Amino acid sequence: MSLKRRILEGAIDAAVKALQVVGGTAATAILASCVNPVVTVRGGGKNLRFRAVSRIAYHRALSLLSKEPDTITWIDTLADNDVLYDVGANVGVYTLYAALTRRCQVIACEPSAANYAELVRNIALNSVEQRVIASCTALSDVDCVDYINMPEVEVGSALSSFGDAVDQNGNPFAPIFRQSVFGHRLDSLIEQYRLLPPTHIKIDVDGLQAKVIAGALQTLSRPRVRSLAVELNETLARDREFIERRKELGFCVTHTVPSGGPVSHIVNMYFARS
């Protein structure tokens, strides 16, 4: 880190402490993003650089290794010739970690236009455009054009829904913005655009995972897919149904951990080919 940068960050921290702002990390994020909207995180033996143009994006970058350590451990099992599909990639923290530290190919799907823009900028910032294909696409159980219903629009935000305005607990909500976007089944996306089929799939789509899986049954039935990491809501019947059906697709549960969010019944569940 340069002397200029150290002085700058020291001044920011001093300003936050002097003001005694409640939630100082948020204040630091705002000040830091105004001064220099790039955060460098050391992980997997590599320096990963992320644009931190909002409070949420700043914390996504800083919490890369700590928010979901089991996801990092899972990604660490990937190899150079593996193909990871990151469904619900957001601004790309896990996409970039996989592409840089494991040197695998990544297909990153993120339907939010604001998040997608930052995802592409992060790809460019880390010079991994040869290993990452980013698509501003919503994955679902049908091929269609519909709306993403957004409860907030800040860069890095999540909890949006595609189609019906229903949250991750199955409750309706009033979106503050609706963005039109193309939706695809994963099966048809791979077939139509002749994408490399996945060897590993990560699905983090805030309540829409059952639809994503329903649109990916052909892909999931292939022995090439060796593992899945899926955020699931154990109180929803549609998510429990997949857990019960996973044997038909040839998967067993390896482990389950809390997702790191405020809701205890939402977990990250990891599956491996039986």
Describe what is shown at a glance.
The protein has 274 residues and is α/β, with parallel strands linked by helices.
* CATH architectural category: 3-Layer(aba) Sandwich
What's the structural domain tally? 1
Summing up helix and strand content along with how strands pair, one would put the structural category as alpha/beta
Q: Give the uncertain stretches in residue-range form.
A: 16-24
Percent of sequence in beta strands: 25-35%
Average pLDDT, all residues: 89
CATH topology: Rossmann fold
Order of helices and strands: HHEEHHEHEHEEEEEHEHHEHEE
List keywords for this structure.
single chain, about 270 residues, alpha/beta, Rossmann fold, 7-stranded mixed β-sheet, 4-stranded mixed β-sheet, 10 helices, about 25% strand, globular
Provide the fold topology.
Elements: H1 3-19, H2 24-35, E1 38-43, E2 46-51, H3 55-62, H4 69-75, E3 83-87, H5 93-101, E4 105-109, H6 113-125, E5 132-135, E6 138-139, E7 144-150, E8 161-162, E9 177-184, H7 186-193, E10 200-203, H8 209-214, H9 217-220, E11 227-233, H10 237-245, E12 251-258, E13 266-273
Parallel strand pairs: 3-4, 3-10, 4-5, 6-9, 10-11
Antiparallel strand pairs: 1-2, 7-8, 7-9, 11-13, 12-13
